[in-house]
Amino acid sequence: MRYRQVLAGAFTGTVSLLAITAHAVADDKATTILEAITVTANGTQDKGPIVKRARSGSKTDTPIAETPQSVSVVTGDQLTKQGATSVSSALRYEPGVTTGSRPGDRFDSVFIRGFGGFGPNANYIHYLDGLKLPTGINYDVPSVDSYLIDRIEIMRGPASVLYGSGNPGGLVNLVTKKPEAEASHEVFTRFGNNGRAEVGYDFTGPVDEEGALLYRLTGVGRLYDLGVDYTDSKRVAVAPSLTWAPDADTTLTIKASYTRDPNATLTNWMPALGTLQANPNGQIRSDFFSGNPNYNTFSRKQATFGYEFEHHVDEVWTLRQNLRFMHSSSDFKGYSVPAGGSAWASAAACGGVAYLCLGRQATHYIEQFNSLAVDNQAQADFSTASLNHKLLLGVDYQQLDATSTYGNGTTTYINYLNPVYESTPNVTLTGRQDQIRHQTGIYAQDQMKLDNWAFVLAGRYDWSSIDSSTTTLSTGASQKYDTQDAAFTWKVGLLYEFDNGIAPYASYATSFDPTMGTGYGGKTFDPTTGQQYEVGIKYQPTSFDALFTVALYDLTQQNVLTTDLQHTSTNTTLTGCSSTTCQTQTGEVRSRGIELGAKFAITDNLNISASYTYTDAEVTKSNVASTIGKTPVGTPDHMASLWGDYTINSGALTGLGFGAGVRFMGATNGDAANTSAMKVPSYTLVDASAHYDLGNYDFKFKGVQLAVNATNLFNKEFVSACASANQCFYGTGRTVMATVSYKW
């Protein structure tokens, strides 16, 4: 019933917008001569190495240099040159963003300005083409293939005023490839170590002579492993889209995608003893598989369908509606070392040797969800006296209907020096969790300009609800909780752009994010809230192509969950609590830092990007005294990166190019108490690439490009992060790929 109401509302909005389009077309019905139409969907999209504009920071086509907040863009060219084959790997050279803490291709999770985590606290990539990319209840988390992406926009700091609930650290918005007016075709094949093999294609161009109808068809297939035994990964993805522009004022882009992962892998975690710390029996190999090859699958299917509609009503008003349906289903079977308690079998259970045999548990999750996201916008560009306005009014709605059926089972211990893998275990599905989430938001934003001054003021009100139930399958007994939240968020920003391209700015923004679960007595939790102060400088030189940014911020999150010391298993019955301990919302986390970013083209054939990040994150309030003043797990104090790409443009070697990069990740803490034994050391990795345009060698090879990419060139073995004493992750070893592509 609810979904029918949602569909009816979406249909009504669509009909209203299309009626405006029909009226505009009818006005020109007498015109019989069709002129070529240039289609630009949702504003200008920079194609060069230095991007000057981004929509994520304002939902309007605004120059980055005029946005009083930290925003950066990873271009498609950068994805190609750096050999990024996942969203996480595409972000590794961006300031303020930490990726690769848990290697694998099952999920894309990030830390932004110190906010992120592992397991239920993970911060996944949440936005696709400006609309919420939902996550299921447990493991059913969508993943967008990097080959389907045109660019990635990173907005740092609270974004709730435009997007609703979310992590206060910021958001990552994936912008997919869309139809283009100029015909272009690409096919490629790629091979590499770890059994990697890929093929892909990307075709776009006009369908008709007038250019009113454009198409794009992109697809990719790949298989490889992660350098760990029994971790084969496979994927097929395809994304067709069609843009219709009946006139110069109207565009409608219909988009769809389908991704199938017959097996997406994730490296299994290991205890600190034997990875981070010395084990008396020897270290655990980085390619050791602690699971069971006979019980190790993660299959996922996800499909999307939606559209982007834009109509310029007149010189002032523009209407937009973006909508997307999504369906996802997954089936996960696997083993894991227990996250809590002891990871090790007793010496008596392992031939009299302690710390040799790992305990494990088997898990089975069958999940699916259906979601809808729609964003309606009305933009007015006008002036009052000397003040220019870009007014944005919006209403958006999100719904998720998710189910997770699960079961756990015990297994045998495994000797990590001499593993023996048993037969398939018998895991019975014992429980089911159902969830329905709704969020409706109304927002307004005014971007004002007066000479060199730029000022933004925005506000939003959200209504959010979560209906959740957990059912025991054997008895039918069910526990339910309903959470109803409402929140007002806002932001204000001021920027002054000097004639030489220097633009200092200051801003303030707030956020909220609903918290799932219940505390003592079944009381539902309030949303977490966040506030950020940010000042910075942007510099866009007038003499050469570059963008330099400096950002300093102070960000605080309240209502963070912490242990409820008044209600414990020793002094009361834990009524309503979801585990062996109750939680309450008296925690607080603060993150302060500085981010430096630079992207510049010294010449037409030499591009450089550099970044440095300092993050001072700490727990400022907690009921657990040992964690107060400590840094959250997985957050480095320092990060730095440098990447350069040079292409020879004269002489016999014209068309030959080289790229190289270095990434430094500072030390992180592997437990909440920041004990020295759980300190994860810093590491430095080197990447490299070479590429050659064969058309410069012989014209008959025009369009053929050869490329070789290597990440972690020197095959450094390192621990990327630890989430606890039982959960440490080895970083990805050396990856080498050779690509042959042909464009025409």
Give a description of the structure:
It is globular, with a radius of gyration of 26 Å. The chain is built from 4 helices and 37 strands. The chain is mostly beta strands and 744 residues long. It has one domain (2-28, 45-743): TonB-dependent receptor, beta-barrel domain (Maltoporin, Chain A). Residues 1-24 form the signal peptide. InterPro entries: Beta-barrel_TonB, Beta-barrel_TonB_sf, Plug_dom, Plug_dom_sf, TonB-dep_rcpt-like, TonB_sidphr_rcpt. It is a multi-pass membrane protein.
Give a short overview:
The protein is built from 4 helices and 37 strands.
Jot down its keywords:
744 residues, disordered N terminus, mainly beta, signaling receptor activity, Maltoporin, Chain A, 22-stranded antiparallel β-barrel, globular
